C-alpha cells in the first residue's frame, strides 16, 4: 500500500514529534513536522503532502492565515487541511460532524485512533 | 425610570467587559492546558504500542493516564461553557419549547430508569427574552442533577407558569438593585425531584464554582455555577430548596419579553 504524506504544522514540538512517531508506526504514513506557520508554508510547497494537520494558535502566524495562504497558492491550494485546536470542545466538533466553518477540525487532546480516522476521511 | 434604565445600561456594559475578560482567560487556559494534555495523550498512545500491555498493571496504568487526561479536559470544557455563558443572543422565546428540547437532549445522555416525568406546563404562556441555547444548558444541568439525585428512581415534575410577583423576596422588591419589581409579571419554571436532597450545609454553596459533592468522577463543580451565571445574564433569579431524603426544587424566574 502506498504511504500517504502528512505535514504537521504546530508550535508544540513535543506534540508534533509524538504524532509523527504514532502515525509512522502504523506504516501508512510518512510525516514531516514544522513548528512555525511560515516554515510550514514553505514545507508545504516543497513537500507537497497529501494532507496538512494545522494548529490554529501559533505565535508567528495564526493557522487561519497559513490556511489562507495555502489556499491562495496554485501549488498547495488542493491539499486538504485538518485544523487542530485546543479552544474548541470535542462535543462541538462532534455536534458539527467534525466540520466548523467549512473545514475539518480535531479538538486537542486527541487519541491517535481518532486522529487517524479523521486523516483517512479527509485524505484524497 | 430613566435612572433605572441608565443603571441597567451601565450594568450591561460592565457585564460585557467582564464577559470578554473571562472569555479571554478561559481561551488562554484552554490553550495552555490542552496542549500539554495532547502531548500526554499522544505519549500514552505511543508507549501503549511500545510496551507490552499483557500485564494487567501496565494496561491499567495506561487507562488511568488516559482517564486523567479526559478528566482534566472535562474541567476545561466546563470552563469554556462558563465563559461562553457570558455573552447572550437574546430573542423572544416560548419557555415550554425550551423545556421540551432540554428534556429531549437529557434523554439522549442518560437513561431514565424508573423515573417518571410529570410536565405541568401552562399553554398560553408569555414569551421570555432569552438565549435559547444557553437556557437549554441551564435546564439540562438542572435535569441531569435531578436524575443523578435519584439513583433508585423517582419523579421529576417540570412546571411552567406566569405570575404577578406579589411577595418581597431576595431580588424581588422595590429597591434599585432588585431584578424584579413587586407587581411585575414574570415566567416561572420549577423543576422538582424526589431525590436524596442537598444537605443544609451544602445548600448555600450549591452555586459556587468548583463546589461538587459528586466526587472525582461525578462532575466538575461548574454545572450549577454556569447555570446561575446564565440566569444572572438573563436578569432572572434562581433559587433552590431542598430537604434531605425528600428531594430538591429549583425555581427559575425569568423576564417576560416586550414583543
Describe it.
The complex is a heterodimer of chains A (124) and B (259). Chain A is an alpha/beta fold and 124 residues long. Helix content of chain A is 41%, strand content 23%. Chain A is built from five helices and six strands. Chain A has helices at 13-25, 37-47, 63-72, 90-95, 112-122, and strands at residues 4-9, 29-34, 51-55, 81-85, 99-100, 103-107. In chain A, strands 2-1-3-4-6-5 form a six-stranded mixed sheet, with helices on both faces. In chain A, helix 2 packs parallel to helix 3 (63-72). The longest helix of chain A is centred in the N-terminal third of the chain and has 13 residues, at 13-25. Chain A starts with a strand and ends with a helix. By secondary structure, chain B is an alpha/beta fold. Chain B is built from seven helices and nine strands; from the N terminus they run ααβαββαββββαααββ. Chain B has helices at residues 2-50, 56-84, 95-109, 132-148, 200-203, 215-218, 223-233; strands at residues 91-93, 115-121, 128-130, 154-164, 172-173, 180-181, 185-193, 237-243, 247-255. Chain B has a five-stranded mixed sheet with strand order 2-4-7-9-8, with helices on one face. Chain B has a two-stranded antiparallel ribbon with strand order 1-3. In chain B, helix 1 runs antiparallel to helix 2. Chain B is globular. Chains A and B meet through helix 1 of A and helix 1 and helix 2 of B.
Amino acid at each position: 500500500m502506498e504511504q500517504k504524506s502528512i505535514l504537521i504544522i504546530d508550535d508544540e514540538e513535543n506534540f508534533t514529534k509524538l504524532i509523527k512517531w504514532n502515525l509512522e508506526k502504523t506504516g501508512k504514513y510518512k510525516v514531516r513536522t514544522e513548528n512555525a506557520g511560515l516554515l510550514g508554508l514553505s514545507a508545504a510547497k516543497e513537500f507537497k503532502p497529501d494532507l496538512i494537520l494545522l494548529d490554529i494558535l501559533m505565535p508567528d502566524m495564526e493557522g487561519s492565515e497559513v490556511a489562507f495562504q495555502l489556499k491562495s497558492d496554485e501549488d498547495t491550494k488542493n491539499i486538504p487541511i485538518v485544523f487542530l485546536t485546543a479552544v474548541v470542545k470535542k462535543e462541538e466538533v462532534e455536534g458539527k460532524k467534525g466540520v466548523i466553518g467549512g473545514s475539518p477540525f480535531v479538538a486537542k487532546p486527541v487519541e491517535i485512533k481518532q486522529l487517524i480516522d479523521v486523516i483517512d476521511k479527509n485524505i484524497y | 425610570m430613566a435612572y433605572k434604565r441608565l443603571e441597567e445600561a451601565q450594568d450591561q456594559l460592565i457585564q460585557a467587559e467582564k464577559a470578554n475578560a473571562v472569555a479571554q482567560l478561559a481561551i488562554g487556559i484552554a490553550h495552555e492546558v490542552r496542549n500539554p494534555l495532547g502531548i500526554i495523550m499522544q505519549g500514552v498512545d505511543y508507549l501503549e504500542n511500545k510496551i507490552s500491555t499483557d500485564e494487567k498493571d501496565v494496561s491499567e496504568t495506561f487507562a488511568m493516564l488516559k482517564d486523567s487526561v479526559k478528566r482534566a479536559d472535562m474541567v476545561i470544557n466546563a470552563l469554556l461553557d462558563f465563559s461562553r455563558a457570558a455573552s447572550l443572543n437574546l430573542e423572544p422565546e416560548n419557555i415550554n419549547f425550551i423545556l421540551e428540547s432540554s428534556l429531549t437532549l437529557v434523554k439522549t445522555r442518560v437513561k431514565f430508569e424508573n423515573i417518571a416525568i410529570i410536565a405541568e406546563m401552562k399553554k398560553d404562556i408569555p414569551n421570555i427574552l432569552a438565549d435559547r441555547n444557553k437556557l437549554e444548558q441551564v435546564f439540562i444541568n438542572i435535569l441531569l442533577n435531578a436524575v443523578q439525585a435519584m439513583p433508585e428512581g423517582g419523579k421529576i415534575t417540570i412546571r411552567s407558569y406566569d405570575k404577578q410577583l406579589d411577595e418581597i423576596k431576595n431580588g424581588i422588591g422595590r429597591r434599585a438593585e432588585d431584578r424584579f419589581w413587586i407587581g411585575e409579571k414574570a415566567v416561572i419554571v420549577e423543576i422538582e425531584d424526589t431525590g436524596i436532597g442537598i444537605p443544609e450545609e451544602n445548600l448555600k454553596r450549591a452555586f459556587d464554582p468548583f463546589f461538587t459533592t459528586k466526587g472525582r468522577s461525578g462532575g466538575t463543580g461548574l454545572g450549577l455555577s454556569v447555570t446561575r451565571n446564565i440566569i444572572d445574564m438573563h436578569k432572572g433569579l434562581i433559587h433552590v430548596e431542598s430537604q434531605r431524603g425528600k428531594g430538591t426544587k429549583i425555581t427559575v424566574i425569568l423576564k417576560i419579553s416586550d414583543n
